DNA sequence: CTGAAAGCGCTTACAG
DNA sequence: CTGAAAGCGCTTACAG
């Protein structure tokens, strides 16, 4: 059934040339005459010859493939990152193979083992939420396979990282609320075992301190996953307080949206009574009413930057660089949900 | 820098066994004694030996890899499908390599050529919006590489397809509006060069006919991409009519959401004055107020089914089957946006 | 139950 | 500018 493919040798026989010459002609080797190249390339096209890139990879010890490990593909943030990776990789002759850890350490370890056999040229990873140490990735260092981590990155070992400045972003978001006139600012915090959410909480606190506002722990509500349902619960907790906050910085957009909806049902005016700022610039932030002020976390660019750094490391093999960390500039997108006084639409870039 | 990997031959020498035996022991071949297997496997683990699966694929002419071509990874529907594919593939020993056509025929053709060299065992494809014929995929048939198409599938040649019944789903959605008491039902139609959107329009018309309601072409609004902005324009067009429709079946959720928002701003009551039904069960359909009645299009299951069918075809090589088409059951999820008379939450499965 | 040998389809250092 | 030859790291049909 599987009709046998034409090999490079077949093509060589057909053209009365050696396999060496065919290989070089197809690879556009400078030593081959233009006449021969044209002849070979035309005939290859005619016969529908396709190089067996597995054989080629095997011989060259280079697969032109990048392994990606993400918690889940269907989380919008990760799908944007993957899209950015694929785009950059494609334009540079690489292809991407994707694995989902499902946020399980066990599965992440399994995938790491599989990737060691797949001979990928490099790996891009967002750690699972369960991952506390990166021993299972150390083998890649030994094998000389470069790795780049994004978003949830390791703290226990030197590694290439693409991150945003969560502290600064949170600081900027909180300061924006302060500038809008808020005095009692709450924070819906992400899981405090994860560094990025710790940093967002710290940024929030720092902004309050800077502006001499008290840090009121009753206004800081912890969550596990920052999902919509947890947001609803947080909104209810705020409503049970003797006094509502007048601004809330949420560690992501889902909780921000749920707060808006619960408050609106309770006839609490947004932004007049409570101004809201989210984090991530999810599509819903442009649709929810009022539109949500939020932080653009550069998901697509994070993917591009990850792929770019990884491919550079694959191709340069610069022995003097131990690791690189690239911090992307975020952007505060100001929309209606924080406009205590009506503002014209504007954007504040984090410096 | 790249420390040389341990090969199977090294392991053989270390254990004083032949490479044949090592290969069989690692592959759990029945002819090898349990004692030898244990010895080999333990020593492999000790030395951190990892089989070079490129060499193995090359030799076996089997890569255990599936190529995926989607328009874009960051469209939620596709990210769910990919997630379903990855999940099923992973559990069955395959990995997935993803390419984005960006809805460009030119790029889709490029990717098809690349995949011919990559020696993938099979391919899953959602056609680009520009694709009118599938000549660029015919080569895979010749090479004996199975293909499965989902969602946007070819009509010009026999192929394995995973689809939903768009006609029936649209019929069910429209009939639901009729049962809710609507008499003047509009439809926001998708690009009519795409079969699935043609089918949704036909299903809508068929339901009206069945219930002896007139088909009023002024209520059928065409769009190109069914995006939010087009939805806004459609809403405005409806408002310019001498009389509003009392129900609208939208070919996707984005346009449904935009209609809801524009109408609400104009103080048009939903669902009392106009009932709305969407299509796809996007996350936003649960968040928008009122919650959106919609069709669950089984994106994740579509991915699972695609992978399952593909892997079956890869492994069975049944020469008697020309092609298979699997139609997934959709589900009408009834929420507030269509509740002319208040209903308790329920779900109607398409039979 | 184990081994020797051939070979998968390329690429590349070497030679001319 | 082109070719002969070796070999990448496995697997498997064949032999014992």
Strand numbers in spatial order across the main sheet of chain A? 2-1-3-4-5-11
Order of helices and strands of chain A: HHHHEHEHEHEEHEHEHEHEHEHEEE
Shape of chain A: elongated
Helix fraction of chain A, binned, reads 40-55%
Annotated CATH homologous superfamily of the largest domain in chain A: Response regulator
Largest sheet of chain A: 6 strands, parallel
Q: Tell me which CATH architecture of the largest domain in chain A applies here.
A: 3-Layer(aba) Sandwich
| Assembly state (oligomeric) | homodimer
User: How far is the N terminus from the C terminus of chain A?
Assistant: 61 Å
Number of helices of chain A: 13
Q: The CATH topology of the largest domain in chain A, please?
A: Rossmann fold
Chain pair with largest interface: A-B, 53 and 53 residues
DSSP strand count of chain A: 13
Helix/strand class of chain A: alpha/beta
Q: Which parts of chain A are unreliable, with pLDDT below 50 for 5 consecutive residues or more?
A: none
Q: How many structural domains does the protein architecture of chain A include?
A: 3
- Mean pLDDT value of chain A: 92
Q: Using the coordinates above, name the CATH class of the largest domain in chain A.
A: Alpha Beta
Radius of gyration of chain A: 26 Å
Keywords (chains A, B): DNA-binding, Transcription, Transcription regulation
Protein name (chains A, B): LacI family transcriptional regulator
GO molecular function, one term (chains A, B): DNA-binding transcription factor activity
Organism (chains A, B): Abyssalbus ytuae
């Amino acid at each position: 059934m599987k009709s046998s493919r034409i090999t490079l040798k077949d093509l060589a026989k057909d053209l009365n040339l050696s396999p060496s010459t065919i290989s070089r002609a197809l690879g556009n080797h400078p030593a081959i005459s233009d006449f021969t190249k044209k002849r070979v390339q035309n005939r290859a096209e005619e016969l529908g010859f396709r190089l067996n890139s597995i054989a080629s990879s095997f011989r060259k010890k280079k697969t032109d493939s990048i392994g990606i490990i993400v918690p889940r593909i269907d989380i919008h943030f990760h799908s944007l990152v993957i899209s950015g990776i694929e785009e950059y990789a494609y334009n540079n002759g690489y292809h991407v193979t994707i694995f989902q850890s499902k946020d399980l350490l066990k599965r992440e370890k399994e995938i790491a083992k599989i990737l060691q056999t797949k001979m990928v040229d490099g790996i891009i990873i967002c750690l699972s939420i369960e991952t506390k140490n990166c021993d299972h990735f150390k083998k890649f260092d030994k094998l000389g396979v470069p790795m780049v981590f994004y978003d949830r990155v390791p703290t226990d070992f030197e590694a290439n990282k693409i991150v945003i400045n969560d502290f600064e972003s949170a600081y900027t978001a909180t300061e924006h609320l302060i500038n809008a006139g808020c005095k009692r600012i709450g924070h819906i915090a992400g899981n405090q075992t994860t560094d990025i959410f710790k940093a967002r909480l710290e940024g929030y606190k720092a902004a309050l301190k800077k502006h001499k506002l008290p840090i009121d722990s009753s206004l800081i509500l912890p969550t596990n996953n920052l999902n919509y349902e947890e947001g609803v619960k947080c909104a209810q907790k705020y409503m049970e307080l003797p006094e509502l906050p007048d601004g809330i910085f949420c560690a992501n957009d889902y909780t921000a949206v749920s707060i808006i909806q619960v408050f609106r049902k309770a006839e609490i005016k947004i932004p007049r009574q409570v101004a809201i700022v989210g984090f991530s610039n999810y599509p819903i932030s442009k649709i929810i009413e009022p539109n949500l002020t939020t932080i653009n976390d550069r998901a697509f660019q994070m993917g591009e930057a990850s792929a770019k750094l990884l491919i550079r490391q694959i191709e340069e093999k610069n022995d003097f660089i131990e690791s690189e960390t690239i911090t992307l500039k975020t952007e505060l997108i100001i929309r209606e949900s924080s406009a205590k006084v009506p503002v014209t639409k504007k954007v504040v870039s984090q410096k």
